[in-house]
């Protein structure tokens, strides 16, 4: 665990953020067991006086898109949540409210009308949902590809998010969410940057090995930080990136969960591949010098020259 603290004058807006990395979740680990792990991370974060705890993408289950399921297979439906909170996850919301800590949680969402999304929610210190984001950049493939050592079937199991890139004013600042592969796309950060975002929460599950491009594997940790640090700096915002890490059902996933400042530098980082917390104070007013000078978006952007971006 690493910790950074800065001065805490009343004039400066400060949110203490815990990047709550998780180690692997086994395929047969129950929701109840996972929620107990999440509650443990929540309590440890509260002991560190965190205001906001950020959990990974699809934090309630193993990363199930690595397996093929035929349409309509009830085993696929079992990975999805039909209510949030639901009967099992309610305990997490209750504990957060009792501790007075907010959190961001990723999960697979099955809506009443059959919509399937890779979703994250932001929950306030009273256990109330403040905002919801549904992943827009879905990686991988839609058909079974047996040549792969493991599947990445997000394009099959999820629809593209239909909520845009929302921001929500909470924790004394302007918050946004992205999910995993979104973090590799500058447009995703910029959509939030254009709305004045000051802190972006990002959960991820990233295999070390990318079967279609194995030559990228050795750069996985570098690429992870490269894109998040650039996204932070180029939009004058804090970024909190949180992994589900370690060897999950035979697939190694990267760690490197961290809190990044608007300078683009890493303020705190997990060191291992298991359940671990990295905490940092995010002084949100530190965003201002970036947002009002080199990345004054209203002053310096040249959108009429960017038309190809929306073709
Ligand atoms: N979960 C997720 O989005 N993972 C992707 C893996 C890319 S390789 C198909 C990522 O961008 O980390």
Features:
311 residues; alpha/beta; 7-stranded mixed beta sheet; 6-stranded mixed beta sheet; 8 helices; 22% helix; 26% strand; globular; disordered N terminus; binds 4-methylsulfanyl-2-ureido-butyric acid
- DSSP strand count: 15
* Low-confidence parts: 1-10
Overall SS class: alpha/beta
**How are the strands of the biggest sheet laid out side by side?**
1-15-2-3-4-5-6
Order of helices and strands: EEHEHHEEEHEEHEHEEEEEEHH
Largest sheet: 7 strands, mixed
State the end-to-end CA separation.
Answer: 44 Å
Mean pLDDT: 96
The best one-word shape is: globular
Strand-residue proportion: 25-35%
List the ions, cofactors and other small molecules found in this model. 4-methylsulfanyl-2-ureido-butyric acid
Question: Rg to the nearest angstrom?
Answer: 19 Å
User: Roughly how much helix do the residues carry, as a percent range?
Assistant: 10-25%
- In DSSP terms, counting alpha (H) and pi (I) runs of 4 or more, how many helices? 8
